[in-house]
Amino acid sequence: MLRLHPGRLTAALVLALLTASAPALAGKTLEAIKAKGQIACGVSTGVIGFSAADSQGQWKGLDVDVCKAIAAAVLGDPNKVRWVPLSSQQRFTAIQSGEVDILSRNTTWSLTRDAALGLHFAGVSYYDGQGFLVPKKLKVTSAKQLKNAEVCVQSGTTTEKNLADYARAQGIKLKPVVFDKFEASIKAFFSGRCQAYTTDASALAFIRSKEAPVPDDYLVLPEIISKEPLGPAVRRGDDEWFAIVKWTLNALIEAEELGITQARVDSLKASPDPALQRFLGVGEDLGKSLGLDREWAARAVKAVGNYSEIFNRNVGADSPLKLPRGLNAQWNKGGILYAQPLR
Description:
3-stranded parallel beta sheet, 38% helix, disordered N terminus, 12 helices, alpha/beta, 5-stranded mixed beta sheet, single chain
C-alpha cells in the first residue's frame, strides 16, 4: 500500500478536487472559432450521402451533419459553418495547415494517418468497406474473376493501396487507372475506359443509382476487400478541441440509444431519468468539462437529430441510397456502433 505523509496527502486531495471541479481550458482552436464566429469544415467535392452541395448550394450529408452538430454545440447555431470542399490530395494539407478546423470528409482512420500526419481521429461516424462495381455485360460475379482488368480508382486514397494489396494477395493482375478527381474517375468508368470501378461500398451504391446511365446494367460485386472506418479528424496539439469533436460525435450516437430524437429534445427535459437529465443539461453539468455550457449535447441533437435520424436521412431508408444499417447499427441491435458513456 502506498503511504503518504499527512501534509502531502492533504495537498494531493486538494489538487485532485481542484482538477475535478475546474472547467476545461478553452484551447486555441475553440478561441479562434468563437472569435471568427464559425467553424471551417473540410468536406468532399461532392459525394452524395456524405457531403455534397444541392442545386441551391446547401451542403447536405452525414459528414455535413457532424459539422453542423459541432457548430450547434459550440456556437449555438448549426449554420455557423464555412464549407471547404477538398479533393483527396488536398484534405490532409488543409487540416495540417489550419485551413480547416475539422476534416469531416469520408476519410478512413488508419495507423499511418493517425500516427504520421499529425491528426487525431475523433471516432467512427460510418463503418464502410471497399468493393467493386462492374457492368453486367462483363459477366463477372466475383472480384476474383477480374484478372487483367483495368480498374478505375481515385489517387491519394486508401482505395488505391487496398486494390494493390488485394491483387497481390489473390495472385491476380489488376491494372489501376488512376484519377485525381472523383468526378473524372466516374466519367471514365461509364465511358468504358475501365472494366471495373473500386471505392467504398457506400459510394458504389450512390454511383450505381445516381450516375449510371442505366443502373440495372451494373452490379456491385459481393466482395468487401477492406475495413474502412470513416470519421472526423482534427489537428494534433489541441486536446480541448479534440475532446469537443470526439464527445459531440459520441453524443449523437448515445442520443439514439437513449431515445432522444430531434423532436423530443425539449419534452424529455422533464424526464426523471438521470441519464436523460445529464445528456440534456438539466442534471449533472457535463459541459464544463469540455469548456462548453450544460446544453451543448441537447443543441447538437436538436440541430441534426440523433445518429439514426442522420443515417436514415442521408444514406439509409429515407435517402436515395437506401443503405442498410449493417455494421452501423447500435451495438445492442446487431451492429458495432458504440458510444462511450456520457457521465
